[in-house]
Amino acid sequence: MSAWWVVVEEQGGAGDSRGWSVAEATPYPDRDSAEGDAYLLAKQHRPPRPWSPQGRTVLRVADGYLVLVRGKTDTFQFRVTLGEQAGG
Fold this sequence. Notes:
Layout: E1 4-12, E2 19-28, H1 31-44, E3 55-61, E4 64-70, E5 75-84
Antiparallel strand pairs: 1-2, 1-5, 3-4, 4-5
């Protein structure tokens, strides 16, 4: 049986220098439990930006979620992705 992972990638930086980095990675014994927690993270994860969230839109994409978090002056994104561990 292979392990499944839920990975949260956050967008950081400002302006044109925004980039993505892994904020959290957690293993799960099966896909079902990973999918359940991935959805909860998409709805509840609090990224460091924006500092004053005004709203959130959760989009289901292939193998996870793309989340748009609207702040007072800008919108930031984070991804919650499911992945099956390859090999040993």
